[in-house]
Specification:
The complex is a heterodimer of chains A (about 475) and B (about 475). Chain A has helices at about 5-15, 20-40, 45-60, 105-110, 155-160, 175-185, 215-225, 270-285, 300-315, 335-345, 350-365, 370-390, 415-420, 425-430, 460-470; strands spanning about 40-45, 70-75, 115-120, 165-170, 185-190, 210-215, 255-260, 290-295, 395-400, 435-445, 445-455. By secondary structure, chain A is an alpha/beta fold. Chain A has one domain (about 5-260, about 390-485): Alpha-Beta Complex (Amidase signature (AS) enzymes), CATH 3.90.1300.10. Chain A has an 8-stranded mixed sheet with strand order 4-6-5-10-11-9-7-8, with helices on both faces. Chain B has 3 domains: about 5-295, no CATH class; about 320-415, no CATH class; about 425-485, Arc Repressor Mutant, subunit A (Orthogonal Bundle), CATH 1.10.10. Helices cover about 40% and strands about 20% of the residues of chain B. Chain B is built from 15 helices and 16 strands. Chain B has helices at about 60-70, 170-185, 225-245, 290-300, 305-315, 320-325, 330-340, 345-360, 375-385, 390-400, 410-415, 425-435, 440-445, 450-465, 475-485; strands at about 5, 10-20, 80, 80-85, 95-100, 110-115, 120-130, 135-140, 145-150, 155-160, 200-205, 215-220, 250-255, 260-270, 280, 285. In chain B, strands 1, 2, 6, 7, 10, 11, 12, 13 and 14 form a 9-stranded mixed sheet that branches. Chain B has a 3-stranded antiparallel sheet with strand order 5-4-15, with no helix packed on it. Chain B is elongated, with a radius of gyration of 29 Å. Chain B starts with a strand and ends with a helix. Classes of the chains: A alpha/beta (about 475), B alpha+beta (about 475). The interface of A and B includes residues 206, 232 and 233 of A.
């Protein structure tokens, strides 16, 4: 069963080839047997999952088929789940049992989804390798000496290893797309405001967006259909109608205008990565798409702008973790100052502290204009660049990541090098656009991904392009040898 | 800027006023703003700053701020932006206060104040912005620990910042009273200073005329207008003393203690946080349209100045009486109810400003908490007018009303205070007194017209004593004159 896509499993459940309980038990058993090698889950919720599976079987027996009825999903441990520890990959929240459930989780549960557990992630979603997790690094199922990317590394790795058929993630600077690329799975970051952020622990509020990771674009469409929609509890969640993502998947690509930004193929880009993306473009060209050279001159500033804005927001968002009301509290604080200092020093890991310091600095009196304000100007320039490009093209494409999965520890002491892992994904978050990464082949046995960027609320278009590509290729169906 | 000098020093005063908006729910959560309940009963997930929670702005709070802006003829921010003011404090759950800074909802405006000598003065408002209140730290009853009550956390406030346009305590208090009158008339705040629902922080500096502004201090914890006046005088004296002794004023926040009429330094500028303000990414800019403003303008309640004009016109009150009664919505409502029930506005005005005000003052009560309902005062006035009781007895009835003995009619009935209108009974009493006082009768009859007027007082007193004050004084006078005249 685990080699099937979510879409196939859905058909199997409807045809009563197997029950939701059998399906859920199968994945729970696989997690139990194999996740020791990957560390992709922080918490497995077996009993709750089986209860949900039984409820799904009853629903199916009663003819109540919803979008995700009986389908097991792994949620990133950034989403609050009532009664279940929600750690955000941090010692700070190791003891935090959320008193409420995130809208994303609730929306999917309402459509019948079953939660298998909570996946590992970089601490507070800050990282591109999943090495900053308090629960230890996640390993890449294609080569367990390598990282799965991050921050949704657990989600992407458990999918690639077929320990779960669908997963949720969040993407602030590439945290869905980069791990999707490095694990050979499909991941979509929706338009900012498409999916509610209620219950999703904030890293950088103006950039964070939840989205699905799946084995195919069709699976992502299925999950997004359930996740997306207006939520009165999130002021930044937009009240736009949700398109029929599944219905639009098969559209022909004849005449599709694909913009190819020259900035996504810089001179210093690894030739194998560039060739891989160009190969994917050629496949779409075969299907009738037209390639158009475009330029997004400001996106070269996206990494520095991002590393001002994201830490600035994070420094404020993470102030609530002060040892007073929830989460980690140091032993025997001498006084209030000591309580704050030690709870935060002991509760947060090194990368989180680095970003809090950077963000605090960027917002400080005398530096605000030079850093935060200027970064916001760059952000506007980037948005303008994209807006200009989308006058002439339907989607933009290029490599998702400048490299395939690197070795564990390879960049641990070089944060700036680590930050460059998101060079192609970050601009999309700064502009708030939807973008997807799809598997587009292998380089030295490691997956490579190609990114499809759409205009605002054009998730349907992006999914359509990826789906058509996946009809003609089978990269997305390859399973790591050890996890067949 | 200043209207008077103190020993050659010019005083410059500006106010920062926190007004707690009387919305049912908090500014960014659906939790109730009710007070007086057990700690943290009204602390929702959002108020607790739970991970993953997000604010949604309360539209009524926005409308209240716009109403205030319209009342002071201010520019309304068509686009205002919430920002985060970052600092750590145990009763600040998120580690930042959501407030407004660069783009507030209410821009520059003006408040006209009336001074005791009858002159008017305009105080400019720099701006007013919306923000959330913090919780409370409870230091008692936790055995060396501090308790946190987040019931108040997230209660909507507007902070009104004046220009430094006031030159003495009287002006500052007049300004504070006028703001109080405006927000209570608008119904956006209950104005209860003792509960901190309206809080005044006073910025004070002194300088020699013509010199640049001196270093200012901020005085907090002024929970009545009386304390505010005293605190300003105290601080002005202190600053002048320091400067005249060759010292320097330190920029600091001072905490006033009304019980001892002293103030102490709470923190100096050196302790000031770098608040690292930046626009809150969880909230969209607040947009107020022309139509929104027109709709709010159309339903604006009567403001103190308009009310004063109406009182002068409708009740024929003097400028002074009308201004006093119109200043606070609670007083105005009380007066109008009493006047309407009593059928005599002048009498109602005298009672409200006289006996009632004195009693409230003596017991340090707000008119909103007055134990005598306005309807009862109206009834009392009616009974004075229809001759049921005399003014003197009325005071006795009022005391009984205050003590909770019932309505004036009940009290008059149960205590037998009804004026004696049966002239037959009264005549008997008068006859007896005349018979019992031959010497005084002789004396009276021997006196001339002018002296008689004085001497009749003895008989009136005797009659009132005998009737326990229930006789109608005019009737007594008339009967006595008839019977004493030979």
């Amino acid at each position: 069963m685990h080699d099937k896509t979510l879409t196939e499993l859905k058909a199997g459940l409807q045809a009563k080839d197997f029950s939701a309980r059998e399906l859920t038990e199968h994945f729970l058993d696989r997690i139990e047997a194999r996740d020791g090698e990957l560390n992709s889950f922080i918490t497995v919720t077996r009993e709750q999952a089986l209860r949900q599976a039984d409820a799904a079987d009853q629903a199916i027996a009663a003819g109540d088929h919803r979008l995700l009825t009986g389908l097991p999903i792994a949620h990133k441990d950034i989403f609050c789940t009532e009664g279940v520890r929600t750690s955000c990959g941090s010692r700070m929240l190791d003891n935090f049992v959320a008193p409420y459930t995130a809208t994303v989780v609730e929306n999917m549960a309402r459509e019948g989804a079953i939660m298998l557990g909570k996946t590992n992630m970089d601490e507070f979603a800050m990282g591109s390798s999943n090495e900053t997790s308090f629960y230890g690094p996640v390993r890449n199922p294609w080569d367990t000496e390598r990282v799965p990317g991050g921050s949704s590394g657990g989600a992407a790795a458990c999918l690639a290893a077929r320990l779960a058929p669908g997963a949720t993630g969040t993407d602030t600077g590439g945290s869905i797309r980069q791990p999707a690329a490095l694990n050979g799975v499909t991941g979509l970051k929706p338009t900012y405001g498409r999916v509610s952020r209620w219950g999703m622990i904030a890293f950088a509020s103006s950039l964070d967006q939840a989205g699905p990771l799946g084995l195919s674009a069709a699976d992502c469409a299925l999950m997004l259909q359930a996740m997306a929609g207006h939520d009165a509890k999130d002021s930044t969640c937009l009240n736009e109608p949700v398109d029929d993502y599944l219905g639009g998947l098969d559209q022909s690509l004849d005449g599709l205008r694909i913009g190819v930004p020259e900035e996504f193929f810089p001179d210093n880009l690894d030739g194998a990565i560039a060739d891989n993306a160009r190969e994917a473009l050629r496949e779409l060209e075969k299907q009738g798409a037209k390639l158009i050279k475009v330029s997004l001159p400001s996106i070269k500033l996206s990494v520095p702008a991002y590393y001002v804005i994201a830490p600035a927001e994070a420094s404020s968002n993470l102030s609530r973790f002060d040892g007073v009301r929830f989460g980690y509290r140091c032993d025997d604080p001498k006084d209030l100052e000591d309580l704050y200092k030690r709870s935060r020093s002991e509760g947060f890991g090194a990368e989180v502290k680095r970003r809090i310091l950077v963000g605090t600095y960027a917002l400080s009196a005398g530096y605000y204009d030079a850093y935060y304000k200027r970064a916001q100007k760059v952000r506007r320039l980037i948005r303008d660049d994209f807006a200009r490009a989308f006058k002439d093209v339907d989607v933009l494409m290029g490599p998702t990541s400048p490299e395939t999965a690197f070795k564990l520890g390879a960049k641990a002491d070089d944060p700036v090098n680590m930050y460059m892992a998101d060079v192609f994904t970050i601009a999309v978050n700064l502009a708030g656009l939807p973008a997807l990464s799809m598997p587009s082949g292998f380089i030295d046995g490691l997956p490579a991904g190609t990114q499809v960027i759409g205009n605002y609320f054009q998730e349907g278009r992006v999914l359509n392009v990826a789906h058509r590509y996946q009809l003609a290729t089978d990269w997305h169906l390859r399973i790591p040898g050890a996890f067949q | 800027m200043s209207s008077s000098l103190f020993n050659g020093w010019e005083v410059v005063i500006g106010l920062e006023v926190h007004v707690q908006l009387a919305t049912r729910s908090k500014i960014f959560s659906g939790a109730s703003t009710a007070t007086g309940d057990e700690p943290n009963r009204h602390a929702s997930l959002i108020d607790l700053g739970m991970p993953g929670t997000l604010p949604v702005v309360n539209k009524e709070a926005i409308r209240n701020a716009v109403r205030f802006g319209l009342a002071i003829n201010a520019e309304i921010g068509r686009r205002s932006v919430f920002e985060r003011k970052n600092y750590f404090y145990p009763d600040l759950p998120k580690g930042y206060q959501t407030t407004q800074l660069a783009e507030p909802i209410v821009g520059a405006g003006e408040v006209v104040i009336r001074l005791e000598d009858g002159t008017e003065k305009s105080v400019r408002i720099h701006h007013a912005h919306l923000e959330e209140d913090a919780g409370k730290s409870l230091h008692e009853g936790f055995h060396g620990h501090t308790g946190i009550d987040l019931n108040r956390a997230g209660t909507p406030l507007i902070e009104i910042v004046s220009e430094p346009d006031m030159g003495n305590a009287e002006e500052a208090v007049a300004f504070a009273r006028q703001l109080h009158a405006i927000v209570t008339s608008l119904g956006i705040c209950d104005g209860d200073m003792s509960q901190g629902n309206m809080r005044f922080d006073v910025n004070i500096s002194v300088r020699r005329p013509g010199e640049p502004l001196g270093t200012r201090t901020e005085t907090k914890n002024l929970n009545s207008f009386r304390f505010m006046e005293k605190a300003i005088k105290l601080e002005v004296e202190r600053q002048i003393d320091v400067l005249e002794d060759g010292g320097k004023i330190v920029q600091e926040t001072r905490l006033y203690n009304g019980d001892t009429n002293t103030a102490r330094s709470m923190r100096t500028k050196e302790d000031a946080n770098d608040y690292r303000y930046f626009p809150c990414p969880d909230l969209l800019p607040v947009l107020v349209s022309e139509e929104d403003i027109d709709a709010l303008r159309a339903e604006m309640p009567e403001l103190p100045d308009a009310r004063k004009a109406r009182f002068m016109d409708a009740y024929q009150l003097s400028d002074y009486d009308a201004a006093l009664l119109a200043a606070s919505i609670a007083t105005a409502r009380y007066f109008e109810t009493a006047a309407d029930h009593g059928g005599d506005a002048k009498l109602a005005a005298n009672w409200v400003m006289g006996d009632l005000a004195a009693k409230l003052n003596a017991e340090d009560l707000d008119i909103a908490h007055c134990p005598v309902p306005a309807e009862h005062l109206g009834q009392l006035i009616q009974r004075i007018k229809d001759g049921t009781i005399s003014s003197k007895i009325a005071k006795q009835v009022f005391e009984a009303c205050w003590a909770g003995d019932g309505s004036p009619d009940q009290i008059i009935e149960s205590q037998g205070l009804k004026q004696m209108s049966d002239s037959g009974e009264l005549e008997k009493i008068i006859d007896r007194i005349i018979a019992d006082s031959p010497a005084q009768v002789e004396d009276y009859r021997g006196a001339d017209e002018a002296k008689r007027k004085k001497k009749i007082g003895f008989f009136v007193g005797q009659v009132m004593k005998a009737t326990q004050g229930k006789a109608n004084p005019q009737q007594v006078n008339q009967l006595l004159q008839e019977k004493l005249t030979p």
